[in-house]
Structures are given as C-alpha cells and as structure tokens.
Amino acid sequence: MKTLRYVWLLLLAVLFADCGNKTDNALQGYAEGEYVRVAAPFAGSLQNLQVKRGSQVKAGDPLFTLEQVNEAAARREAEERVRNAEAQIADLKKSRRPSEIDAVRAQLAQARASLKLSNVNLARREQLAASNFISKSSVDEARAAAERDRARVGELEAQVTTAQLAARQDEIRAAESNAAAARAALAQADWKLAQKSVIAPLAGLVNDTNYVAGEWVPAGSPVVSLLPPQNIKVRFFVAESALGALKMGDSIKVRCDGCAAPLVAQITFISPQAEYTPPVIYSRETRTKLVYLIEARTTPQDALKLHPGQPVDVTLVR
Fold it and tell me: What does the buried/exposed string (b/e) look like for 26-39 if buried means 16 or more CB atoms within 10 Å of the residue's CB?
C-alpha cells in the first residue's frame, strides 16, 4: 500500500507539472529604460554638482552649474549697451536744454536790435540822399545792412523753433533700431548665462553622474543621466503565429519578481521586421525561430516598480 501511494503521488506530480506547462502562456521579456542625458551646450569647468546618483528630482530642480565668469561679463556689457541705446532715444525725443534755448533767444534779441538800427540808418540815408547830401552808394550800403540783419533775425527765429522740437523721425527710428539690437544681444547673453546653470527637464531618477566638481566638461557632454518613469518600457518577442492577433494599444499583463500584482501595459510598438531570437532573450522558443519585437508601456506610477534589465513575464490579454 505504501508503494502504491508513492506511485499515485508521483503520477499526480507529473500530471500537475504537465498541466502547468500547457497553461503557462507567459512570454519572457525584460524592462528597458530610455535615459535622458542632460548636458550644457557650452564648455566649462564643473562648479557645482547639485544631485547624487540614485536621488529623485522634479522638473525644474537644479542639476549642475558650470563656471560662468565670461558669460556673466558678456551679460553686463550687453546690459550697459541697452541702457546707452535707450538713453540716446530719450535724448533725441526731448528738446534742447532750457539754457541752450535761452542763449538762442538772446542772440535773436540782439539780431532784432541790430535790424531796428539798420532800418533807422536806412531811412535817414534815404532822406539825405533825396536832398543830395549823400551819394546813392551810401544808401545802398545801408539797405544791404538792413537786409543782412533781417535775414539774421529769420535765421535765429528758426533756430529757436528747432531747439524746442525733438530730433528728426529718421534719427529716432535709427536709434530705436539700435536699441532693439542691443536688447536682442542682451537676451542672447541671458540665454548663454542660463545655459551654464542646468535644470532637470523632466522628473525622474538620477541614474548616473559623469563628472565631479572641478573637472572640465566639454560642450555637449552629458553630466547627469536621468531616467523618467514614463521612459521605462517592457520589451518582449512573439512568434510570427501570434503576431496577427496583436495591434497597437492592446493591453498586456506584466509580472515581475517583487511585484505584488500584475502590471497592466499597452503595446506601443510592433516591429515590422522579423529577427532571430537574440541569445540574451529569456525565451522558451527555439533560438532559430523568427520572432518580432514588441514594446509596451505601463503608467508612470507602475513603471517605478520596474528596473531596466529586470526580467519579466508577459501575458497577452485576449
């Protein structure tokens, strides 16, 4: 009886194992991350690294700062150029100073007095010439002097009017163009200065840091590598026979070691080309069989439960 009991136990174990193999339709896959490598567009010495590997950052948090002496000086120069250009515009839009206008008015008063005297001399000489006491040439000289003084009065009257006006519109427009160019140069200087203090473009995990404070960082060289949760995806392969039943947006269930419950993901990519099963894939299929790569993404909250390189079991939701 004891021998028969052992035989039944062995048969049940084989039966359950066989049933488990028939019902286990899970596909083997792995998690993969798309890293955001953050760099500055300009070279410089790393002045301050404000994050550590493994820490979490929010969008907008400071990551690192490069030395910025040259950029700060260029910004100050551009700012002074803007002030100078705006001061020139303000000066052109104003009339001349009151003391300058008063000086022109004083000259006008002198010219009017000279004109008055010239008119008196002209009248006197005309009377003397009519009585034949002086020659006509003397009258001509007095008349020329009066015309000269009259023209001088007209000139100074025009100068007083002009002194009370602003500059010509063409000069003002030219000055405004110069001010606009100066402001554009200031905006460029601000941008260059801001590029030396880099912030996180997305929230995520600081996966790695490539430099330490004091090191020279070439332009465009990544200093910090971020892994946003939305950039974690699941990759797995399916045989050609199962490809027709899949389409973009289909749901799958993802199981991983340590996950309390299966995660739900949606298919976001189906490879249009077949490939041989790569040797690193966790697959029970024959390695010479053609398979198709499938990618799926979970919600950012569920993605935090996955780690790049972690093997997972994928079940297609029919």
Answer: bbebbbebebbebb
Cα–Cα distance measured from residue 305 to residue 317, given in angstroms and rounded to the nearest whole number: 20
Burial of 301 (0-12, 13-18, 19+ CB in 10 A): exposed
Q: By three-state DSSP, how is residue 313 classified? A: strand
115 phi/psi in degrees, rounded to 5: -65, -40
Q: Of 203, 301, 205, which Cα lies nearest the Cα of 261?
A: 301
- Other Cβ atoms less than 10 A from the Cβ of 55: the count is 11
Q: What is the DSSP letter of 131?
A: T
* Domain 36-68+195-227 belongs in CATH node 2.40.50.100: yes
Secondary structure (DSSP) of 173-210: HHHHHHHHHHHHHHHHHHHHHHTTEEE-SS-EEEEEE-
DSSP notation for 88-121:
HHHHHTS---HHHHHHHHHHHHHHHHHHHHHHHH
**Of 47, 40, 39, nearest to 212 (Cα)?**
47
β strands within the chain, DSSP E: 27-33, 36-39, 44-49, 56-57, 62-66, 197-199, 204-209, 216-217, 222-227, 232-239, 251-256, 263-270, 275-276, 290-297, 311-316
pLDDT digits (tens, 9 = 90+) for 183-203: 999 999 999 999 999 999 999
Q: Which CATH architecture has domain 25-34+228-316?
A: Beta Barrel (2.40)
Residue 287 CA, distance from chain mean position: 48
Distance CA 87, CA 79 (A): 12
Give pLDDT tens digits for 226-284: 999 999 999 999 888 888 888 999 999 999 887 888 999 999 999 988 877 655 554 55
Report if pTM > 0.85: no
**Strand order of the sheet with strand 44-49?**
197-199, 62-66, 44-49, 216-217
Give dist(CA 211, CA 217) in Å, integer: 8
247 Cα distance to chain centroid: 38
- Measured distance CA(269)–CA(168) in Å, rounded: 65
